[in-house]
Design a protein that fits this description.
Layout lengths: L7 E7 L6 E7 L6 H19 L15 H10 L12 H11 L4 E5 L2 E4 H17 L7 E5 L4 H13 L2 E5 L5 H11 L3 E4 L1 H4 L9 E3 L3 H8 L20 E7 L7 E6 H23 L5 E4 L9 H6 L5 E4 L2 H5 L1 H11 L3 E4 L1 H9 L11 E5 L5 H8 L5 E6 L9 E4 L10 E2 L3 E6 L12 E7 L5 E2 L3 H7 E3 L10 E11 L5 E6 L4 E3 L2 E3 L1 H9 L4 E9 L7 E8 L7 H9 L10 E4 L32 H14 L17 H13 L6 H6 L3 H6 L29
Parallel strand pairs: 3-12, 5-6, 5-7, 7-8, 11-12, 13-14, 14-15, 27-28
Antiparallel strand pairs: 1-2, 3-4, 9-10, 10-20, 15-16, 16-17, 18-19, 19-22, 21-22, 22-23, 24-25, 26-27
Helix pairs in contact: 3-5, 4-5, 12-13, 18-19
């Protein structure tokens, strides 16, 4: 067998005295398959024939390289027909589910179980309260609530009243909370008595749902279904359902305005692609669905939509959400049929036994970040389980593409959900051939209205659909994601076309962090990037240059950022430089930015077994070679996924500890001091939910 000298080579020879051109193509079979090379040759043939046919004056970009059969396949793949459905708003879906399943279980939480009738009674009373406070279509209600079933009830109450909710994490830094509330301009804020005292000033009524006086008032409302006659204005499918805030490149978060029609379209799509197959695998009509997403994240609608098909949603509290062993225990005890988390979180759940002893949920979902090949292989190998990759930016209402791990040997994002169109185009906005990378655009029912109070940014990202003539006047969203079509019609994600990154499932614009740093008078310049050479997962690193006459302290800068931005946007390390390295053209040479030294303190070696174990685990998950007992896990760069891995390692060694203890600990030495000898069950005896002693890294995402 001959070996190709190059990855791909074309040798063309013209016969002397003739107009005949003969070519030979050699390719590396490790990188290309024969079908891909044949398509490349066919495209080159079309270009050469066009030029030889007297059109040598044409730009290469104006030559159509797509053969008719390939164009037809792309047109077929790019859209999944939308189902015809009577319900046009989320309120309609909810009322329909309550009417069909009044006595079935709807919500399960800690020491709580509500039927659909119970949930509807509370939702409708709260909705009438909101209407009395002026909530109507095109108005917004802020939700600053803990992780309980009440939060889902509050979301539904806002939607039934006609308003759009803005869910905010209670732990959000006060300055950022004030910024979001200022741009959202809510008509009402729903919270609790405890959280109300820590809220920034807001020009709206603040209602504590656990206030006894308010509860007595709510109890007096009618719990009959609301109609447009009860609302301040008719509710339509094109009205906003919620606003979700994502990182923004201008220094302020972007507010995506999602519509009712996007949620209802996604519900009908997932009912066919996820719910019905899961029902078939379990042999049951009513399913149990785990809910572990943040309510401030639009992915929280993934489990919530199952509610409208009559299934029970099990809401885990924050303690269980952070603890993979506890979540596995709850999943097994409650016999979940479906749960969706990020791939890195799912890897932790599998490491802690989610799929052991045939007790795995019948269906698993994962999304929010790219999935690695080892993790994809692992999911494909699960017996009797279907694993779904769910891809979608907030601008396309939760999920735009769906794929089963069994669909392909290598990771794919899948095909469009019903009602969505997906285009992969080149820089001239022409369809990219199969196997050729381009930019992904999305269109269809799931498209958001745009960015709240930001017409300029909306116009930049939501552009006219010039590709599909069947939808004149429609818009499409420019995702910034690079992708390609596989030969069997799936979309494969290929990375970003800009600086945006994903950390723990959240989209982050490094420019927003740079703006916060650069706004300080002691900082002259700041650059933030995600590095993948500091451990198993990508970590944010800030590079700063002090202003003239100032000195900078990395810890002071970290705390300043943490006061303004959420924890997943706080850099794991800050490097102070005299100047940023530049290329010959004057641009910043990002490749030359130094790898940071993450250990910020003077090294003090461990002296007890607990300290030795903690230092070893911390070194493994962060990539820091020398970890001492005075180091802080969070300052070393540990995030929630890293903490889960450390937790598994401690439990495997016999220590009894919860995730909250790790998050709230100071130094490694202080944490080790809480791990007393009487809390060890004995190495080898283990914990019923233990993971492996060595932290597993094989399934971590790239």
């Amino acid at each position: 067998m001959e070996t190709s000298k190059f990855d791909l080579s074309f040798d063309l020879v013209e016969y002397v005295g003739t107009d005949t051109l003969v070519g030979v193509v050699e390719y590396s079979s490790d990188l290309y398959d024969r079908g891909t090379v044949e398509r490349l040759v066919a495209g080159l043939d079309r270009v050469l024939r066009t030029l030889a046919g007297g059109e040598a004056h044409r730009r290469l970009s104006a030559i159509d390289v797509l053969p008719a059969d390939e164009r037809a396949r792309l047109e077929q793949w790019r859209a999944t027909p939308a189902p015809v459905a009577e319900a046009v708003t989320v309120a309609d879906l909810f009322d329909d589910a309550v009417a069909r399943h009044p006595h079935e279980t709807a919500l399960v939480a800690v020491d709580l179980e509500w039927s659909f009738a119970d949930l509807a009674s509370l939702v409708r009373r709260w909705a009438r309260l909101l209407v009395d406070h002026g909530v109507a279509p095109e108005t917004r209600v802020a939700l600053v609530l803990p992780r309980t079933a009440d939060t889902i009830a509050a979301m539904l109450a806002v939607l039934v009243s006609g308003g759009a909710y803005v869910a905010l994490e209670p732990r959000t830094p006060t300055e950022r909370l004030a910024t979001i509330l200022g741009t959202a301009e809510p008509a009402v804020v729903l919270t609790t008595r405890e959280l109300a005292s820590s809220l920034p000033a807001v020009d709206a009524p603040v209602l504590a749902l656990d206030d006894e006086t308010l509860a007595a008032r709510v109890a007096g409302y009618d719990d009959a279904p609301l109609t447009d006659a009860d609302r301040l204005a008719p509710l339509r499918a094109d009205h906003p359902a919620y606003v979700v805030y994502t990182s923004g490149s201008t220094g302020t978060p972007k507010a995506v305005l999602a519509l009712h029609r996007g949620l209802t379209a996604l519900f009908h799509s997932h009912r066919a692609d996820l719910y019905a197959p899961t029902q078939a695998r379990t042999g049951r009509d009513r399913l149990r669905v785990g809910h572990a997403w943040s309510f401030a994240f639009d992915a929280s609608w993934q489990p919530q939509l199952w509610l409208f098909d009559g299934h029970a949603v099990h809401v885990v509290d924050e303690k269980v959400q952070r603890d993979p062993a506890e979540m596995v225990r709850v999943a097994h005890e409650s016999r979940w049929d479906f749960v969706e988390v990020t791939p890195s979180h799912l890897a932790q759940l599998l490491d802690h036994g989610l799929a052991d002893d045939g007790r795995c949920p019948a269906s698993l979902g994962f999304g929010g970040e790219a999935v690695s090949q080892p993790m994809w292989d692992r999911l494909r190998g699960l017996d009797g389980v279907s694993a779904y990759n769910l891809y979608g930016p907030s601008e396309s209402t939760v999920d735009a593409l769906v794929a089963r791990a069994s669909d392909a040997k290598a990771p794919v994002a899948g095909r469009p959900v019903a009602g969505t169109r997906a285009y992969i185009v080149d820089r001239w906005m022409r369809p990219a051939p199969i196997g050729v990378e381009g930019e992904l655009y999305l269109a269809g029912r799931g498209l958001a209205r745009g960015y709240l109070a930001d017409p300029g940014r909306t116009a930049d990202r939501f552009v006219a659909d010039t590709i599909d003539p069947e939808f004149p006047g429609d818009r499409m969203y420019r995702t910034g994601d690079r992708a390609l079509w596989t030969p069997d019609g799936h979309i494969r994600y290929r990375g970003r076309g800009d600086d945006q990154v994903k950390i723990r499932g959240y989209r982050i614009e490094p420019a927003e962090i740079e703006t916060v740093l650069s706004s300080r008078p002691d900082v002259a310049t700041a650059v933030v990037l995600a590095r993948t050479d500091l451990g198993a997962t990508a970590r944010l690193v800030a590079y700063v240059v002090p202003a003239a006459g100032h000195t900078l302290d990395a810890e002071t800068l970290r705390r300043a950022v943490a006061r303004v931005l959420p924890d997943y946007m706080v850099p794991s390390a800050t490097v102070v430089l005299d100047a940023l390295p530049t290329l010959a053209n004057g641009k910043i040479d990002r490749a030359a930015l130094p790898r940071p030294e993450l250990a910020p303190r003077t090294h003090r070696a461990p002296s007890t077994p607990a300290e030795e174990l903690l230092c070893a685990l911390a070194s493994e998950v962060t990539g820091v070679e020398r970890v001492g007992v005075d180091d802080d896990l969070l300052e070393l760069g540990c995030d929630s996924i890293s903490v889960m891995r450390i937790l598994g390692g401690l439990r495997a060694a016999g220590y009894v500890i919860d995730a909250e203890s790790i998050f709230t600990a100071g130094s490694i030495g202080e944490l080790a001091a809480t791990l007393h000898e009487d809390e060890i069950r004995g190495a080898g005896n283990g914990h019923p939910d233990d993971g492996p002693t060595k932290c597993s890294t094989a399934e971590e995402n790239r």
